Every structure is written in structure tokens, then in C-alpha cells.
Amino acid sequence: MPADCPRLKENAKLCTCTYSGCEKHARCCECLHYHRRKGGLPACFFTPEAERTYDRSVEKFIAGRK
After folding, report:
1. How far lies 56's CA from each of 3, 4, 8, 13, 26, in Å?
2. b/e map of 17-55 (b: 16 or more CB within 10 Å)?
3. Is 63 exposed, middle or buried (0-12, 13-18, 19+ CB in 10 A)?
4. Domain residue spans of the chain
5. pTM: predicted TM-score of the whole model, two decimal places
């Protein structure tokens, strides 16, 4: 993992992840690739209520959009 991200400060203003200790916080590229490998989506795709469940599945995302 890179030591720093050139857009870290800008990304941090937009990052909605509430998982404390997340090493990918505000590192959008790493976060997106991590969740894709796991078959899910990053926190920023979800409503605040859905994000707090830590269920990052595609199914949860679709259910929240109905």
C-alpha cells in the first residue's frame, strides 16, 4: 500500500466510511479495488443509514435504491 495518496486531504472531506481504523480511509482507489475483490461496494455508494450496517453487498445497495 502506498504510504500516501496525493489527494488524501480532498478525499477525506468526501469519505463517508465510518469503520474506525480503516487503512483505506480516503484512499479511494484502494478502497474501490478492495471492495470489488470482495464482491461489494465502498461506503460512499450507500446512504448514511445503510453504511452504518457495514453490509457493503451489491444486494444491500440495490435494496436501498428501491
Report:
1. 25, 25, 22, 21, 17
2. beeeeeebbbbbebbeebbeeeebbbbebbeeebbeeee
3. exposed
4. 40-66
5. 0.81
Mean pLDDT value across residues 21-41: 94
- 3-state secondary structure (DSSP) of residue 65: coil
3-state secondary structure 16-64: CCCCCCCCCCCCHHHHHHHHHHCCECCHHHCCHHHHCCCCCEHHHHHHH
Q: What is the pLDDT of residue 1?
A: 47
| pLDDT score, position 20 | 86
Rounded Cα distance between 45 and 17, Å, is 10
